[in-house]
Amino acid sequence: MAPPQPKQSPGATARGITLTELLITLCVMAILLALAAPAVSGVVTRVRIETSMHLLHSQLSIARNTAITRQVTVRVCPSQDGLHCSQDSNWNRRWLMFQAQRQEKHPANPAAILQVTDPPRLPATAAIRSSIGRRHARFQPDGRSGGSNLSICFYERDRPRGRIVINNTGRIRAERASSPRSCL
């Protein structure tokens, strides 16, 4: 004999989600996402700027160590094509590290290129710029970086977010921007 089935009342039916309830839920979710999107976008931009800063700091440190280890001059510069240095102060594109013979501002040949780095893709509101007077980093065989200090500044919406400074002795330091004037 089969077990007895529970009795259902004659008016009880299985109920699901109506189309109206589903549309209202989707509208509420869309509004919440629209409100949260700018905040998430800002976080993503800041993370990409921080990542670029750490990556460039690492590449500059590797360049200095390579100069000391190999007893050669090593340069790091912004590049558009990965073969030549750009003559502007825009570091948003590729970074080129190469072994230089004396005062060369570009690699003498492709064999002189030690590393080409593509930084994280930054939105149009972010920028990486170097000092106007000094656009490339150069490390001598003893690790020094002769000449004036080089500052590479990281901006978001024209506000400084951080900078990397290379002083004459070759010391590389990264710092967060403490004021709007800290990247001059």
Automatic annotation (TrEMBL):
Hey, what's the signal peptide range on this chain? none
Which parts of the chain span the membrane according to its record? 22-44
Q: Does the keyword Transmembrane helix apply?
A: yes
| Cell compartment(s), UniProt | Cell inner membrane
What the entry lists under Pfam families is as follows: GspH
Q: Does the keyword Metal-binding apply?
A: no
Domain General secretion pathway GspH: residue ranges = 56-170
Membrane topology summary? Single-pass membrane protein
What is the name attached to this protein's record? Type II secretion system protein H
Q: What is the lineage of its organism?
A: Bacteria, Pseudomonadati, Pseudomonadota, Gammaproteobacteria, Lysobacterales
